[in-house]
Amino acid sequence: MKITFQGNFSFSLKGEKEELLLLNPQENKNYSDKLILSIFSEQNFQENFQKKPVVNWPGEFEFKEITVKSFATRENGLGQIFRFEDINFGFLGDLKKLISQEKMEPLSNTDVLFLPKTNDGMSNKDLKKLIEEIDPRIVILAGEENLFNELLKELGASSLERKESFTISKSKLPSDHTEFIALMQEDI
């Protein structure tokens, strides 16, 4: 599957059969006919989003072969754990502070964690704690690139791959370490 970052906390995941799953899609983009699901990190955000179905409220959902568990992280904020092409993804949107251990529990089996990084987001110390608690195999950083180096120092990570897109499959997930990938903005 190919993962790209469209900016503004928006990601696309294109499966092997060209199916498209979107995280925080932007209304004005022209998305493929293969769009099967849009997931939002704000409750009731984009209620009128023209491309259906959408997940923008807490609960457990299944669309085709994608399962989603969506849960409240803060007032109107949502976190999701979803399974797409046999990989468990975690998406927390624009968190401003660390969430409770109880709220992190659904993310315990996350293979790939999406982590937008902004000036007004979580501190590096809290992001480190979040990553350590979730212990994903891959962390996809997106956002303000100048902030990544400070976060990597806090994490004690030695390297960061910068890419326009990232291709992943279950068989290529690292087994003994966490890999950090920085995605640069790309249009679909």
Account of the 3D structure:
- It is a single chain.
- The protein is mainly β.
- It has a single domain, classed as Ribonuclease Z/Hydroxyacylglutathione hydrolase-like (Metallo-beta-lactamase, Chain A, 4-Layer Sandwich), CATH 3.60.15.
- It is built from three helices and 14 strands.
- The strands form two sheets. It has an eight-stranded mixed sheet, with no helix packed on it. Strands 5-4-3-2-1-13 form a six-stranded mixed sheet, with no helix packed on it.
- A hairpin with a 2-residue loop joins β6 and β7.
- The two termini are 14 Å apart.
Short description:
With 188 residues, this protein is mostly beta strands.
Shape call: globular
How many domains is the backbone divided into? Answer: 1
List how many beta strands DSSP finds: 14
- End-to-end separation in angstroms reads 14 Å
- Reading off the top of the CATH hierarchy, the class is best stated as Alpha Beta
What is this structure's SSE topology?
Layout: E1 2-7, E2 10-14, E3 20-23, E4 35-39, E5 54-55, E6 59-63, E7 66-74, E8 77-84, E9 87-91, H1 101-104, E10 112-117, H2 124-134, E11 138-143, H3 148-155, E12 161-163, E13 165-167, E14 179-183
Parallel strand pairs: 3-4, 4-5, 9-10, 10-11, 11-14, 12-14
Antiparallel strand pairs: 1-2, 1-13, 2-3, 6-7, 7-8, 8-9
List keywords for this structure.
188 residues, mainly beta, Metallo-beta-lactamase, Chain A, 8-stranded mixed sheet, 6-stranded mixed sheet, 3 helices, 14 strands
